[in-house]
Amino acid sequence: MSKTNPVLDAIYERRSIRKFTDDPVSRKDLTAILEAGRWTPSGLNNQPYRFLVIHDHDARVEPLAECTKYGHIVKAAKLLICVFLDKQAMYSEMKDHQGAGACTQNMMLAAHSLGLGTVWLGQIINDQAAVLEVLGLSTEKYELQAVIALGHPDQKGSSKRNELSEYMLEDF
């Protein structure tokens, strides 16, 4: 792996973190993470991404945890960043969904670069209507894409990847 390129290092070293310390995440770090999401490319520069930050002391944490089998992670995080698409700003469903994934990844890489841990909670979108109700948002206007659980890591992440050749459809 690289060790000389900070972007590649962040990609190769970032791992999903599901346990967090009680240390707060600074507003400066949170803003930097949200800015990384804001700078995600989008088709026609439509910028359909919308964010909602929920702090660990927010009354919505408990009911939000009920919307996923990973509720224990929702409760453990110092912050949750909910990533939405604004349906009125979308122009291509597939492209905007892909962009939301890139947006989520941008924020997770930014968090990693700041020494913070994240995990992408995707299963929670299976109960999207309940999540939007808990958050007081309209299903007509917003589509939940992901929830990022965020905090100072209280564990080491681990992961394995297949060999590159297993992904290739042809030799390059």
Tell me briefly what this model is.
The protein has 172 residues and is of the alpha+beta class. Helices cover 35% and strands 17% of the residues. It has 6 helices and 4 strands; from the N terminus they run ααβααβαβαβ.
What does this protein look like?
- The chain has 172 residues and is α+β, with helices and mostly antiparallel strands.
- It has a single domain, classed as NADH Oxidase, CATH 3.40.109.
- It has 6 helices and 4 strands, in the order ααβααβαβαβ.
- It has a 4-stranded antiparallel β-sheet, with helices on both faces.
- The longest helix is centred in the middle third of the chain and has 21 residues.
- It is globular and about 50 Å long.
- The mean pLDDT is 96.
Counted by DSSP, the helix tally is: 6
Helix content: 25-40%
CATH homologous superfamily placement: NADH Oxidase
Shape, please? Answer: globular
Lateral strand order in the biggest sheet: 1-2-4-3
- Gross CATH architecture: 3-Layer(aba) Sandwich
Helix-strand blueprint:
Blueprint lengths: L5 H8 L13 H12 L10 E7 L5 H5 L5 H6 L2 E8 L6 H21 L3 E5 L6 H8 L6 E10 L21
Helix pairs in contact: 1-5, 2-5
Structure keywords:
NADH Oxidase, 17% strand, 172 residues, 35% helix, alpha+beta, globular
